Amino acid sequence: MRTGRLDLHGPGAPAAARALLVHVLAAHHSDHTAWPSRLIIPSGLADRLDLPHAVLDVLPQVTITATTQNALDLADREALRRARLAEDTTAASLEELRAGLPDEMIPTVLLVATVASADDGRLGALAHAGARVGLYLLTLDPTGGPAGDGQPAPPWHLTPAQTRDLLRLLADAADQPTPTTDSPPPTETAAPNPMVEALPAPPTGTPPPPDPGPPPVPAEPPADDPPTTSTVDEPAGQPGHLDRPGPRVRLMLFGRPAVHLDGTPLVGGLRTLSLEIAAHLAVHPSGVTGDRLAADLLPDQDPTRARNQAYRAVAALRDTLRTATGDPTLTPILNSKAGYRLNPAVVDVDVWEFDAALHAAGHAPDDPARVLALTRAVALATATPLGDTAYDWSAPIVADLEHRAVDTLADLADLLADDHPDRALAYLEQALALTPTVEDLYRHVMSLHAARGRVDAVRRTYQRLRDALDAHGLDVDPTPETQALLAHLTRTPRPTPAPATTGPRRIVRPAIRHPDRPST
């Protein structure tokens, strides 16, 4: 379709359309291109072609819309995005665009629609502008034509049963489970399209398709809606928190990864792999190539399949955030020859704020300023980095973040120990919640209790250390240093802190730095 548009006429049009759709969706498996083609089709037309909704719904490269207008909206947005990418890279063709942005998912897109006077202007404009950047249009015109003059159907056609079988094979090839029988879609109805109803009936002998109505599709925001502006509603009551406007999208990595929109957790709609990619990009702010994403996140997969899954997950992340914000122009992920990276103008990350607070603490002119910056940092580090996830690539990242969080809490406790011992103890308890087997932290707690004459609390803290070592299966006793400190602190009713615990306190574990993490 060099002109960007192919029109099918007459009674043979549905069978020919089914053959073309299957060919487009299967081309990825036959020629091993990096981008599986994408299909956009209105629900009513999918019903009229007797395409199985249950199978289409599990194919990630298929988008079913409620109406033709919704399908055109999606295609217009994609055409606009590609036009901007082509302008940025001075690309004159789809091949040049892909070469200029090797890590950007730029699949061939086929929009299927029926000819209708109300939409013909938009269809023509899309076909004219889209062909250069890989967007094509297939239209069905039921009003007649050569195939309607008693001519036999062309050889490239498929019956509904053949189409259903081939689509199931494609779903199996994509490792997408499908139901053994087609369940009818929900009964929510969309606006009627008279041109779809005017399509010719299926060939004689083929049972007519059921008409339960199209599946519900979330309403698409109008293409010309202005972006919504807001500020992030961060948790109140955190010491040192500064109220400031910021990006609407906030990624949380202390604790199980989560995306917040305008201060509210985004529930549902976000694929697991998409969230993992967001976390990976957050801890590699300088960018990650598609090859590295595939290798890090899907190390056991075939490289080509892993890369395709990563592409689709990136595209799904963009689409989810655009839908959630109602802003079709939102660009949460930037891409260049260096790879993907989160857009700091759109996405905020708690780990980035933690790093910025540590940087401010390191350059603070005095202790009060340092306390303020460290307080801001520890207010973010309230849970284990990445929570209970089991990402293959995350072990050194988690160790590094955990070490720096504990070190920051110990530093802050040192600064507050003389004037605010209760706050210092609270921060040390927060550190122990992150790393319950670090003896240096227990020694700090024992010394603070001893300085306030709490001998029983010193003994209880020592016992907590022994219990923690046993609970984690370490099968060791506290070190002689800790045992000597216990004896010293409990020997007299009001002991003075042992010399070994005075001065700057540091966690003795070696820091684990990631090569991509900028120094602060």
In short:
This protein is of the alpha/beta class and 520 residues long. It is built from 18 helices and 11 strands.
Q: Tell me the span between the first and last alpha carbons.
A: 54 Å
Number of strands: 11
Strand % is: 5-15%
SSE order, one letter for each helix or strand? EHEHHEHHEHEHHEEEHHHEEEHHHHHHH
Question: In one word, what is the shape?
Answer: elongated
Helix content: 40-55%
Q: Could you give a short account of the major beta sheet?
A: 5 strands, parallel
> What structural class should be given to the helix and strand makeup?
alpha/beta
Question: Which blocks of ≥5 consecutive residues have pLDDT under 50?
Answer: 144-151, 179-244, 499-515
Written overview of the protein:
With 520 residues, this protein is an alpha/beta fold. The protein has 18 helices and eleven strands. The strands form three sheets. The protein has a five-stranded parallel β-sheet with strand order 1-5-4-2-3, with helices on both faces. Strands 8-7-6-11 form a four-stranded mixed β-sheet. The protein has a two-stranded antiparallel sheet with strand order 9-10. Strand 4, helix 6 and strand 5 form a beta-alpha-beta unit. Helix 1 runs parallel beside helix 7. The chain starts with a strand and ends in a 30-residue tail after the last helix.
